[in-house]
What does this fold into?
Amino acid sequence: MEVCQDRCLGRNVWPDNVWRDHIERTVRTRVRQHPMPPFDVPEGDPFGPHNLPYGVFSLPGTEGSAGAEGSAGAEGSAGAADRRVGVRLGDHVLDAGAAAAALGSPYVSLLARPSLNPLLAAGRTAWSDVRRALTAWVTVPSHRETIESLFHPLSEVTLHLPFEVADYVDFYASENHARNVGRIFRPDAEDSLTPNWKHLPIGYHGRSGTVVVSGTDVVRPSGQRKAPSDPAPVFGPSVRLDIEAEVGFVVGTPSRQGSPVALGDFREHVFGLCLLNDWSARDVQAWEYVPLGPFLGKSFATSVSAWITPLDALEPARVAPPERTHPLLPYLDDSDDEPGGYDLRISVSVNGHVVSEPPFSSMYWTAAQQLAHMTVNGASLRTGDLYGSGTVSGPSERERGSLLELTWNGRDPLELPDGKRTFLEDGDVVTLSAWAPGPDGTRVGLGDVTGRVVPSQAHPASH
Ligand code: MN
It folds into this structure.
């Protein structure tokens, strides 16, 4: 532990009485055989005090909560009154509103809430101030006694969708992904990219009401499909259910309709990011998408991680995006700006087996460019807006962020220990996890996003 090392080196960083109290409390706690005291996060833990992501949780036994079954992260039915903003430290979650109240902090009005929306709406200065306060609460020894009882083991809480999703947009910002899709579906085209691809970040408006938190089961969608050789479309459960490994960006500060948000104002508006799985029914998508784009093949479910990592925790992870091969119009030109990419190392697993490790640093379009583009026509932002990066695919075969690419549209099945996979089968569990470089060689962990495919529901049309 850092403080002990300082003590051993003769640097007396705490007054003696504080030190004595610390030792006594540590011994007491150890004697109680608590799994790991909340403050004593092991050095190098990706959820140490340098991270502090935000979520929303409820405690077991609160009215309508999901109980033990839901403790793995599934959305329970806890009433809004039982939900509270939490901050993750190691394997514990701090009841942030209760801590603010106990410490007499002015941020109780932002934190003692059932969702992150009031904090999101408070803006950049408040985000930095609150983060600074939280960092002090979990690191300054004099606060320990006051807030120690406000930590709860993660295994004992239910995590909920942490914010009310306003509008949802999904992009298509990985050049590797776009080229793979082009090669699969337009093998005879001269260029695997469409002519607009290098000039604007392609996106579409999705369905915010079906964004669900990690741990929520995903019902296999049904719809129309028609292979090119089929004489007519058929209706039924999707037979080509896929994932898209993405990063979601969460908007805090709104903007006025008619006023575009400039590239340089990204950090004024975007609070943080999460992992996002954009479940996709490829057969439904292929038949419906011309000419208006994604619709029912996407809108049945989008999963997000339960933890929102503030951009402030990811400063050490900022990297330059890939070199731009085409000159950009001024509103998208970031050549003189600070690095707009993020070095996030994503891992995709199916039933516990890692099938891909997509590098987010390879994304051609940055989140700042996406924000500038989606508002350049005067469209406004609302607190809680969520936008997905688009499938993250790196240049190599083991870095592809969808089964479509990993199996080359089903041609090359994946060999998993529990059998071959082209697309997802009922019962399959998909988990995205990620980390980013943190300060001083540490890692910043992002919250996992996981979901299990369950069989399609009986549909009236099938009887
Ligand atoms: Mn997508």
Residues 1-12, 29-34, 65-74 have pLDDT under 50 and may be disordered. The chain has twelve helices and 26 strands.
